[in-house]
Amino acid sequence: MTGQKTPTRTTLVLSVLFVGAFVMGCAEMLVVGLLDLIAADLAVSVPAAGALVTANALGLVIGGPLLTLLTTRLDRRVVLLGSLTVFVLANLLPALVADYPAFVAVRVVIGGAQGLFIAAAMVTATSIVPPEQTGRAMALVISGFAMSSAVGLPVGTLLGQAVGWRGSFAGVVAIGAVVLVVSSIVLPWVPTSPGSRALGQARHAFAPRVLALLALCCLIFVAIQSALTYLVPFLTRVTGVSGSLVGAYLAVYGVATAIGSYAGGRFADAGAPRALIIGTIGVAASLLAMYVFGPNALIVALAVLGVGLFGMGMAPSLQHRVVSLAGPGAPLASSLPASAVNAGIAIGSIAGGFAITAGGVRAAVVTGAIVAAAAVAAAWATSFLKPATVTAPPGPTAVAARSATH
């Protein structure tokens, strides 16, 4: 399939990568919507069931980059098919016979497979499109995960309530198996450059300029998650929203993230550094508005919309900049933004919790606004960073690195 880059074939490959990301995102988020059912069935507390979310995140944060490093020399098609296979087989356990300890362990494995898939999907997507469409190709993969929160999570939750939480995971396994079969037919061969070695990629992927962008990525999601982790209590206690209206606000956020992640690809192609500055300003302004006008239901709805649009709208630009600055280390660096995002989510949730303990639920929102203001400064400072001048060998790896610098 190498060299067959007709528009139809390219669209088909990108569609498969999108659906693969969507299914993996659904598997990650299902636990959030089914916590009570899982806790009751496995005879554990709700906080203990919540550890399943943490286990998946740890697998992604640590396992994703590690597995990507270990598979550096393999063709990206092999890596994608391998990660999908592990994902399907690992999700069979909770679907069929999992007890709690096994479920926690397998969630770490699933997170690692997810991180590996993200990195390989990014390299594959950017290798089959023109350089000026790099950001949009990345955005399509990212929007698969965003769409899983907006659509897959509520649908999976309803399915779990109807047929049991194991039934939802069985559905994920079935769809994942179909994606695996289609992928084996559709995905192109994307070999890594012969001159590219794991240690060489790591040297470029973990260069100070790349770490600076990863820090910005983490900071952005610390700001967002400090507030949004506690959005429901904010809505009920400050805004005065309850019942089905709370679900409407959550739906607004989910749809906004899906739209933002997809549309953000064009802004990444037009100028990723500028998009990050504008995006961080948008998040900071939205969180500030949520804090100042907390009792106003309409303004809070617009603020939630803004956080989703600007926050996830920056995701393609963050990926674009990290890959660009990594140069020859692009294949490995592709796995790092997801790790930084999940680290930011974890830190933000903790920071918001401390803020609530100290000053009430509104303190979590103002904490997010303050961190977002710091992210604006960081986005401006990192906009001056440039990729190192490196002569990359020809091949798909070089194409990915070169196209990302557009």
From TrEMBL:
Pfam families from the UniProt entry: MFS_1
Major subcellular site: membrane
Keywords annotated in UniProt: Cell membrane, Membrane, Transmembrane, Transmembrane helix
Keyword set includes Repeat: no
Entry's Gene Ontology cellular component terms: plasma membrane
Protein location: Cell membrane
Spans through the membrane: 12-35, 47-71, 78-98, 104-125, 137-163, 169-190, 210-232, 244-263, 275-293, 299-318, 339-358, 364-385
InterPro entries hit by this protein: MFS (IPR011701), MFS_dom (IPR020846), MFS_Efflux_Transporters (IPR050189), MFS_trans_sf (IPR036259)
Major facilitator superfamily (MFS) profile domain sequence ranges: 13-390
SUPFAM superfamilies: MFS general substrate transporter
Keyword Transmembrane helix: yes
Membrane-protein topology: Multi-pass membrane protein
Molecular function per GO: transmembrane transporter activity
Protein name as annotated: MFS transporter
Organism of origin: Pengzhenrongella sicca
